[in-house]
Amino acid sequence: MARAALRPLTTFRLRTAKAAAPEPKRDEPAKTGRTGKTGKPQAARKGWRPGRAGKADNAGKAGKADRERTGKAAPARTEDRALPFPLRLLAMLVAFAFMVAFAVVLARITLEPSPASAALVHSNLHPGDSLRAYLDQPELRDAVKQVGGNVLLGVPFGILVPVVAPRARGLLRVLLLTATVMLLVEFAQGALVTGRAFDIDDVILNTTGALIGYLILGRRVSRAVHARRRRA
């Protein structure tokens, strides 16, 4: 009698224990990436959406892409303020007049025959030989006259060329043009003028003078006369 009374109570307890067991969450397989019997990961459910961590990740990537795009964008270019056209034309004409006057002076200095020194001069194709000879002279004034005179002959090139020829602006272009002109002058001296000879050191000193003139004054004058684009 007692056993019959206890049996329904035991059955009721087992059923309530089974009912109280927690059910697995529906989105656990998608988050944990559980594998099935075949060993392959099960596909995520359609209703699953990324959490806060995924959204923050995507926002960080989008911000990084925006920063890269803005960093690689071409910098804007602005133009320097140039003189009005009449003033610019007047400045170019004045510079051209000075260039012509300088060419006349250069021709008189370098292309004038000197029969008295015909037996003393000789061509120099080795850079530095004539320069050492200038510096070895007993009087300092003679050395300064030789070296300084050749340097001064190149200074007007560095000042006037960027103003007369806007396309020739730039340090390398000015130096190349000066060296070319002075090479032609030296060739003419050695081939056509009595008492003159080709000297490569004179070309080097003339080009040095053009460099000094461009750095001190030529670059500023050319920027004041002609407009020049520059990056902001």
From TrEMBL:
Residues 63-77 have a biased composition (Basic and acidic residues). It holds the Pfam family VanZ. Residues 100-217 form the VanZ-like domain. Residues 51-62 have a biased composition (Low complexity). Keywords: Membrane, Transmembrane, Transmembrane helix. Residues 1-77 are annotated as: Disordered. Coiled coil: none annotated. The chain crosses the membrane at residues 89-111, 147-165, 172-191, 203-221. This is VanZ-like domain-containing protein. It comes from Streptomyces humidus. The lineage of its organism: Bacteria, Bacillati, Actinomycetota, Actinomycetes, Kitasatosporales.
